[in-house]
Amino acid sequence: MLLVLALLLGLAALGGGRDRSDQRTSAPASPSASPSPSGPDLARRKEGDPFALGRADAPVVMIEYSDFQCPFCGRFARETKPELVRKYVDTGVLRIEWRNFPIFGDESESAAQAAYAAARQGRFWPFHDRLYAEPRRRNSGDFADEHLLTWAREAGVPDLGRFRADMKSGEAADAVVNDQVEGYQVGAASTPAFLINGRPILGAQPFTVFAQAIEEARGR
Predict the structure, then answer these.
(1) pTM score, two decimals?
(2) Who has the most CB within 10 Å: 6, 24, 60, 92?
(3) What's the CA angle centered on 110, arms 210 and 172, to 5 degrees?
(4) Residue 177 CB contacts under 8 Å (≥ 6 apart), including other chains
């Protein structure tokens, strides 16, 4: 698995290895565009999945591949996701499934493993919101372990000793690698990247772009 990831990361590096997610001016994939062949099957739809928001049987599933150090992922989390939750998740139309997709170095990896640790205690989404609460400097110590521990406490993670152990565990590292491999297999080389019932959308697009894709997916 680690060898596969290394090969995939190498391919991504050849593609530039940079954040290309500020694509508000680029057109999203058209409704007639062919999605990734395995896209529709990637939705996990597990009841009680701590990395998911919404009903397991929702007609539309949006898979999100994101990095906690990505500024455009933060923009989506603060500006767009709350509106999607209100209009579509809370009404049973949409399910959002998160995938850790750290591409900006060691602090991204640490944040992803910390998110896994928070999820183990049912506090992934509060932790997610705390990490994205404001823009942060990339690879400057903002995501050092002591800060992640503080944010876990603020997010209501009950057992911080367990959180610390889970964050450093092989299980956490393997879970993050699995998400990364899935992301690269569907062609995600920058963040944020989304699949809405298999249809790709790249970048922190406006709410209207997501809404149109959701409405089209639910009508099929």
Answers:
(1) 0.82
(2) 60
(3) 85
(4) 1, 2, 5
Q: State the pairing for strand pair 193-196/199-202.
A: antiparallel
**Chain position carrying tokens 């998160």:** 98
Helix axes 170-185 and 106-120, enclosed angle (nearest 10): 110
pLDDT in tens, 35-84: 343 344 799 999 999 999 999 999 999 999 999 999 999 999 999 999 99
Whether residue 114 has pLDDT greater than 60: yes
What's the rounded Cα separation, in Å, for the pair 137 and 196? 30
Contact yes or no for 105/191 (Cβ under 8 A): no
Superfamily for domain range 47-218: Glutaredoxin (3.40.30.10)
Distance CA 99, CA 203 (A): 15
